[in-house]
Amino acid sequence: MLIFLAGLLGFSVGGFLPLLGAMVARHFGVGSFGSVLGLIGPFLAINAFGPIAYGYLYEVNGSYQIAFLISLALLVPGALTIVFLRDRI
Q: What pTM, to 2 d.p., does this model score?
Protein backbone atom coordinates (compact mmCIF):
# COMPACT_ATOMS: atom_id res chain seq x y z
CA MET A 1 0.00 0.00 0.00
CA LEU A 2 2.83 2.40 0.86
CA ILE A 3 4.48 1.79 -2.51
CA PHE A 4 1.19 2.51 -4.28
CA LEU A 5 0.69 5.76 -2.36
CA ALA A 6 4.29 6.83 -2.99
CA GLY A 7 3.76 6.25 -6.71
CA LEU A 8 0.49 8.17 -6.65
CA LEU A 9 2.21 11.07 -4.90
CA GLY A 10 5.00 11.02 -7.48
CA PHE A 11 2.57 11.17 -10.39
CA SER A 12 0.55 13.97 -8.85
CA VAL A 13 3.57 16.10 -7.91
CA GLY A 14 5.10 15.48 -11.34
CA GLY A 15 2.15 17.22 -12.97
CA PHE A 16 2.55 20.42 -10.97
CA LEU A 17 5.11 22.25 -13.13
CA PRO A 18 3.45 21.52 -16.49
CA LEU A 19 0.11 22.61 -15.03
CA LEU A 20 1.69 25.77 -13.62
CA GLY A 21 3.14 26.63 -17.03
CA ALA A 22 -0.19 26.02 -18.75
CA MET A 23 -2.06 28.20 -16.24
CA VAL A 24 0.46 31.04 -16.56
CA ALA A 25 0.33 30.93 -20.36
CA ARG A 26 -3.47 30.84 -20.39
CA HIS A 27 -4.10 33.64 -17.91
CA PHE A 28 -1.20 35.99 -18.61
CA GLY A 29 -0.27 35.21 -22.21
CA VAL A 30 2.87 33.84 -23.74
CA GLY A 31 4.48 37.28 -23.86
CA SER A 32 4.41 37.56 -20.06
CA PHE A 33 5.30 33.93 -19.42
CA GLY A 34 8.90 34.53 -18.31
CA SER A 35 8.07 37.52 -16.15
CA VAL A 36 5.25 35.78 -14.32
CA LEU A 37 7.28 32.61 -13.73
CA GLY A 38 10.10 34.83 -12.50
CA LEU A 39 7.73 36.28 -9.90
CA ILE A 40 6.45 32.84 -8.89
CA GLY A 41 9.91 31.26 -8.59
CA PRO A 42 11.01 32.77 -5.27
CA PHE A 43 7.77 31.67 -3.62
CA LEU A 44 8.36 28.11 -4.82
CA ALA A 45 11.85 28.23 -3.32
CA ILE A 46 10.49 29.42 0.03
CA ASN A 47 8.23 26.35 0.08
CA ALA A 48 11.33 24.18 0.52
CA PHE A 49 11.63 25.43 4.10
CA GLY A 50 8.08 24.39 5.02
CA PRO A 51 8.90 20.90 6.32
CA ILE A 52 11.76 22.26 8.42
CA ALA A 53 9.63 25.05 9.89
CA TYR A 54 6.68 22.75 10.57
CA GLY A 55 8.96 20.17 12.15
CA TYR A 56 10.31 22.87 14.44
CA LEU A 57 6.77 23.96 15.34
CA TYR A 58 5.92 20.36 16.16
CA GLU A 59 8.97 20.00 18.40
CA VAL A 60 8.17 23.23 20.24
CA ASN A 61 4.40 22.77 20.61
CA GLY A 62 3.98 18.99 20.55
CA SER A 63 1.31 19.10 17.85
CA TYR A 64 0.79 20.16 14.26
CA GLN A 65 -2.19 22.38 15.06
CA ILE A 66 -0.31 25.68 14.67
CA ALA A 67 1.33 24.42 11.48
CA PHE A 68 -2.08 23.54 10.03
CA LEU A 69 -3.46 26.95 10.97
CA ILE A 70 -0.49 28.65 9.29
CA SER A 71 -1.08 26.50 6.20
CA LEU A 72 -4.73 27.49 6.17
CA ALA A 73 -3.86 31.18 6.49
CA LEU A 74 -1.47 30.89 3.55
CA LEU A 75 -3.64 28.71 1.30
CA VAL A 76 -6.96 30.57 1.52
CA PRO A 77 -5.74 33.80 -0.18
CA GLY A 78 -4.10 31.78 -2.95
CA ALA A 79 -7.22 29.70 -3.52
CA LEU A 80 -9.39 32.82 -3.64
CA THR A 81 -7.00 34.41 -6.11
CA ILE A 82 -7.27 31.42 -8.43
CA VAL A 83 -11.07 31.31 -8.13
CA PHE A 84 -11.49 34.98 -8.97
CA LEU A 85 -8.80 35.12 -11.66
CA ARG A 86 -10.68 35.96 -14.81
CA ASP A 87 -9.87 34.70 -18.28
CA ARG A 88 -8.50 37.20 -20.72
CA ILE A 89 -10.96 38.21 -23.44
A: 0.61
